[in-house]
Amino acid sequence: MGNETTLECRGIRRAYQTDQDLVWALWDVDTTARSGEMTVLAGPSGSGKSTLLRVMAGIDKPDHGSVEIAGTNIVGLSARARRRFRKKHIGFVFQDPAANLLGYMTVLEHLELAARMRRAEVDESLLDHLEIGELAGEHPAHLSAGQQQRVALAAAVTGDPDVVLADEPTAELDTQSASLAVEALTRLRDLGATLVVTSHDPEVVDVANKVIRIEHGAIKE
Fold first, then answer.
1. Residue 220: exposed, middle, or buried by beta-carbon count in 10 A (0-12, 13-18, 19+)?
2. Which of 95, 99, 101 is nearest to 165 (CA)?
3. For residue 105, which of 155, 166, 161 has the smallest C-alpha distance?
4. For residue 194, how many other CB atoms are within 10 A of its CB?
5. CA triplet 188, 197, 24: central angle to 5 degrees?
6. DSSP state string for 201-220
7. Helix (H, G, I), strand (E, B) or coil at 165
8. Are 115 and 121 contacting, i.e. CB atoms less than 8 angstroms apart?
9. What is the mean pLDDT of residues 175-187?
10. Could you give the CA distance from residue 135 to residue 203 in angstroms, rounded to a whole number?
């Protein structure tokens, strides 16, 4: 795939109204992400990194700025159009492993659903790459948290979306499961995926191609 720029944020600002004041969660954030690379958004809790990830996904709309993915500025789209765009072009992994999966569907069915949304074929070898191939017929309730998170990552990259976003993917995992999730991220990166991950896990930061540190809603140079 080469190292093409697949995501570009420019001048992102996002504010929230509290009871007393207007709080800027993000202020003039510029960043890019490239194919075949893992970009980590690092920073303390409340720094704005998860807000930025949600803006990148089109889940949250910024008050100012642009988010361009595959040549489309998603900020200019309606909420409905952003949802359609996200299904086809963006893979998203939530922090809570169980929140990523549907209890009535098997592991393989999760990949099949993602493939249908992106009008693609299922690549079952992804499960083998992430060492969960033998679990294809299992339901989430029979999987460990680490296995659930690897299934979520496999579904997120099924159909080759333009970018995969993962919010603290190791935060809810034990040490061994977290290490396996990090291995999964690096394997997906090596397969050519564009990954943007929020994390303060040193193991995740260590394998990143680029680390963007965010404090008080702004990138720290």
1. exposed
2. 95
3. 155
4. 30
5. 160
6. -HHHHHT-SEEEEEETTEE-
7. strand
8. yes
9. 91
10. 26
C-beta neighbour count of 21 within 10 angstroms:
9
Q: What is the pTM of this model?
A: 0.91
For 34, phi and psi rounded to 5 degrees?
-120, 155
Q: What is the mean pLDDT of residues 140-166?
A: 94
| Exposed / middle / buried, residue 93 (Cβ in 10 Å: 0-12, 13-18, 19+) | buried
Tokens of 185: 């991220």
Q: What is the CATH number of domain 35-60+83-220?
A: 3.40.50.300
Backbone angle region of 166, left / alpha / beta, with phi > 0 → left and psi within -120 to 50 → alpha: beta
> What ranges do the domains of the chain cover?
35-60+83-220
Residue pair 166/93 in contact (Cβ under 8 Å)? The answer is yes
User: What counts of helices (H) and strands (E) characterise the chain?
Assistant: 7, 10
Cα separation, 198 vs 50, in Å, equals 7
